Amino acid sequence: MDKEDILRKAQEEKSDEMEIQIRDKSMKWTYISMVIAAAIFSFIRGMQDYPMMDLTATVSISVAVGNSYRYIKCKEKSNLFIAIVMFVVFVFSTIRFVMGH
Q1: CA distances from 60 to 1, 21, 24, 31, 34 (A)
Q2: Distance between first and last Cα of the chain
Q3: How far apart are CA 36 and CA 10, in angstroms?
Q4: Which end of the chain has the lower number of beta carbons within 10 A, N or C?
């Protein structure tokens, strides 16, 4: 392949690496803000003796799904570990929520 073929193929590609990187970073900030907001609301609800397991379940399943996807795509064991831990937290939180705690 010469330079022109490589350039033409690169221009024909539909995905832009910068867009992919920006989307990945936006998901990181989405997770961080979601965890911080849930922690604040859980703290407030805990102080007022309201149950907080629904927030915990919501955050943990979204983090588990995101890390599962990353593991499938990148095969990094740290993503698998976080996904498993967060899925266990999700199950535990859901059970506690259904039981009314």
Answers
A1: 48, 24, 19, 10, 10
A2: 65
A3: 40
A4: N
